[in-house]
Amino acid sequence: MKKKGMNYRKYTAYPTVDIAGRTWPDKTITKAPMWCSVDLRDGNQALPVPMSVDEKVSMFQLLVSIGFKEIEVGFPSASATEFAFVRRLIEQKLIPEDVTIQVLTQAREHLIRKTFDAVHGADRVIVHIYNSTSRQQRDVVFRKNKEEIKSIAIEGTRLVRRLKDESGNAGIRFEYSPESFTGTELDYALDVCHAVMDAWGANAEDKVILNLPSTVEMSRPNIYADRIEWFCRNINDRQAALISVHAHNDRGTAVATAELAVMAGADRVEGALFGNGERCGNMDIVTMALNLFSQGVDPELDFSDLPRIREVYRKCTRMDVHARHPYAGELVYTAFSGSHQDAISKGLKAHQGSDDGKWDVPYLPIDPQDVGCNYEAIVRINSQSGKGGVAYVLEQDYGIHIPKWMQPDFAEVVQAEADRTGEELSPERIHDLFHHEYVKLTEPFILKKCHISWDDEDLERNDEEATIITCTVQMKDQEFHVDAKGNGPVDAFVKGFVEVSALDFSIENYAEHAIGSSAGALAVAYIRIGCTDGRISYGAGIDSNISLASIKAIVSALNRLP
Ligand code: KIV
Ligand code: ZN
Description:
TIM Barrel; 3-stranded antiparallel β-sheet; 8-stranded parallel β-barrel
């Protein structure tokens, strides 16, 4: 039977823009756009449970603390809660002097009048009106022709103008959105916007904000950018308008859409924290701002405490932030894969020693500390992890620097445990494994007593073999003694042990260091031994005395002989 497949023929490709010599692909962004948060309006109206007045106040205060200077606070003509919230902001004087609130309304007389009632007494307000202009909405929803739709915009604008003039409030500004702009013929959208600008009497001193929404994201971002460049080129008086973009994320490219739109000439960007908003959300301002930050551009918004922002957002909206969300997800500064862990830990070391302080760490586009996250969370261990990551965790959390030559041995231990449990291993668990695998072994050998001394006469004669070791080693029920001389405790112990046991081995690698820096710090020694029969083994010992730590490391390696 023939497979049916998905019916792609049902869909039509979005038209491209007839624009010659487009310039936006050669542009770059060197300055943050004007930001406007729509969390309290577009974000809120998309929530299964909209925010209460108290929650909206918390969200407003969060947005102010981040540094937003324009905040769309609601749709006050649409609901009592929205109206009450706007009144609360104004009456309780919660709006800082450098912040302008924005209120949305449809371009309908009674709603515009109610909106003016809501903002009465506010010093700085953007009254934002919209009507749908797309072919689809004209034909299917409103059943009005182009002229009729245009006159809704003109009438709405005239009324806002009149009410502003009557109020005598010079702090009232005006924004118009040809809603469903992405479904609107470009020349018609421009025609409507020209009519709105005329109705407002826009000029360079009294600019209209023309917000060109990607109400539904219908095309690749480059086509949207072409539309913005075309619009900016063809507008009659560019100085009399601020071009604003408001991208939704239906195709998952809202951030790219807004970024390319800014390259194409947009002055202002509307969006919401973590991309909250209708359907697939609004453009995520956190991502766009931190994208700029990562390129060395001041985002003019403060995301230095993302965990707090995420928390307030969760509380107010009852929405989650995905663990893989750019910059903000709980797992985005964590590497599980061995090669990533290794590269990150090397990159972080190189960064600590660098002179210019420039960030250049593999796999981490920004320094997690810049957004309030910790290094400790960067490397986490599961069965995908490698030796570098395991070593990094012990080093960071416990000051144990396993030498490179021993890292594969311990990584194998950790990997086996991760495979066995199928779970992530915490730093505590990894530290326990290290002790369990090397430090606490008691079979077959236990070091019972150990005395290290120096022969005065040998020292006087400058005899290299001046160290004397006297140990008692228990093996099962027997005890035997190791008495020998050597050029140091390790050498003496090996000589003595080989003499009294059936084992013939030598030290192939050795390393030691203090754990911590206090006077009473412990020391840790690492050993690799090789037997004449070809077997090799690794061991580690910890003691307050470094010589004893070394002897313990040898006994550990002997206990781990295969
Ligand atoms: O997405 C949209 O078109 C809007 C308008 C009201 C600006 O939210
Ligand atoms: Zn929207």
